Amino acid sequence: MTSEVAGSLSTPAPSTSILSRRTKLFYGLGEAGEGVKTAALETFLFFYYVQVVGLSGSLTGLALFVALLFDGFSDPFVGGWSDRTRSRLGRRHPFLYAAPIPLAIALWFLFRPPEQLGQFEVFLWLTVLTIAARFAMTLYFVPHMALGAELSQDFNERVAIGGYRVLFGYLGRIIALGLAFSVFFADRSGFENGQLDRSAYPHFAVAAGALVIAFVFISALGTQRAALSLPGSGEALARGANKGLVRTLRLAMSSPSFRALFLALLVMYLYNGVQFALALHMNTYFWKLPPAQVQLVFYASMMGYILGIPLARPAAEKLDKKAAYMLGIAGSCLVGSSPTLLRLAGLAPENGEVTLLPLLLGASFLAGFIGCIPVVLSSAMLADVADEYDLTHHGRAEGLFFGANAFCRKASLGLGGAVAGFVIDLIRFPAKVDPAAAPADAVLRLGVTYGPIMLTVLFAGLAIMIPYSLDRERHASIAEALAHRRRRGELASSQS
């Protein structure tokens, strides 16, 4: 085979060089679009359909769960599709350019259901539009994450890339939440709690969609050159990328490290999904905070995540990634739930007392500060698993692995929303109710679910991570073996 043909079939291999700050900044900027979307959907979608539109909690949860089932197929499909793509724009960038406009359109329709629809019609509207939004999210998010894994093969550099991604992801959330609570849901005549004003949501959706388009396009343009300059790796990767989705999934699940990380991510995102879905309920009804204070609580968490980014790399170097990941999750969730646990024990300040807001702000900030460690490390650990797969099965499958990660992340909306919807109906929490009129027993049951019950689920799930075995030494041996194999392939190609 000639070198020209071999080059046309080759798939970019991970780079071992240290990336420029410019490349990492542009790559991370794309996550700001993901952050805006996350704020719109995870913070407001469940609350909007249950408390504002009046759809039952069970039907809202069912709609989000049905969309999740669709994602179960679309995430690895898109990941595998991007693994096999050959174009003049590279493997991942055609998807990055195709995703943001459909996502913005879906967001607008999601937050504007016709008012004359009945319960079943609203359920269908939510289901179809959530599926559309999720698929558009998949077209962007899975190839974007896979690109991050391809940009470097260095054990520590991958943590740095993840740090930039997380930084911009939370900046995007901060921008979206700031627009929401300071502009669209701010206190005004007739709505002391602006998040209950149905007319404000379409305007918020338009702003969120415009931000998503801007962030994703700028990021894609800024990383285009770096993606095209990734070195080819010969026929081995080309063959590996075309094994077929089903076979690749089966081979991936044969790895104890992949199974452990995948299931642990699923449990963590399920926990986060329930917390996100019920967070606005908790702040509005359990703590009875006005919109300005709700915004501050969310901001405290986001700032914690941003300022905690530098912790990830030294934590991984000192404890290794697995231990840092598990301790970060446990510490973050315990701290984040502490105000609720204190209130249930009768030890927290009463609603309206001056000391309550500092308690909530401090717990939210510390939870984010500690919780940033596993958020940054998860993508780096998946990239390490992709290297192990390449060594064992002779093929890159970053798209597939990050498709699995995207499925877990979006399970936070699907499974989390389904559980939250079931809880809302189970505790008989009324819709469209003023915070001052919410039944005390329903509010208490909301706090019990949000705090101790979900913490029990989380800690049971942490045990799943025990079989994960890709420590620093194991990954170093894998990287050395892959480099040796590539050198042999390049030598063979030059001699053909």
Task: Give a structural overview.
The chain is an all-alpha fold and 496 residues long. The protein has one domain: Growth Hormone, Chain: A. It has 17 helices and no strands. The longest helix has 38 residues, at 356-393. The termini are close together.
SSE layout and pairing:
Blueprint lengths: L2 H7 L11 H33 L3 H28 L8 H6 L1 H11 L8 H33 L3 H30 L16 H28 L6 H7 L3 H9 L2 H31 L4 H29 L1 H24 L11 H38 L4 H29 L13 H23 L9 H24 L1
Helix pairs in contact: 2-6, 2-7, 2-8, 2-11, 2-15, 3-6, 3-15, 5-6, 5-8, 6-14, 6-15, 7-8, 7-12, 7-14, 11-14, 11-15, 11-16, 12-13, 12-14, 13-14, 13-16, 14-15, 14-17
Throw out a few tags for this protein.
single chain, globular, Growth Hormone, Chain: A, mainly alpha, 496 residues, disordered N terminus
For this structure, the CATH topology is Growth Hormone, Chain: A
What is the percent of helical residues?
over 70%
From the alpha carbons, calculate the radius of gyration and give it in angstroms. Answer: 23 Å
Main sheet: strands, sense, barrel: none
Write the element-wise H/E pattern from the N-terminal end onward: HHHHHHHHHHHHHHHHH
CATH homologous superfamily classification = MFS general substrate transporter like domains
How many domains is the backbone divided into?
Answer: 1
Tell me the overall shape.
globular
- Indicate the mean pLDDT: 82
Distance linking N and C termini: 7 Å
Number of strands: 0
Q: Class by helix and strand content?
A: mainly alpha
Q: How much beta, percentage-wise?
A: under 5%
Regions with little confidence, pLDDT below 50 for 5+ residues: 1-16, 232-242
The total of helices stands at: 17
The first-level CATH class is given as Mainly Alpha
At CATH level 2, the architecture is Up-down Bundle
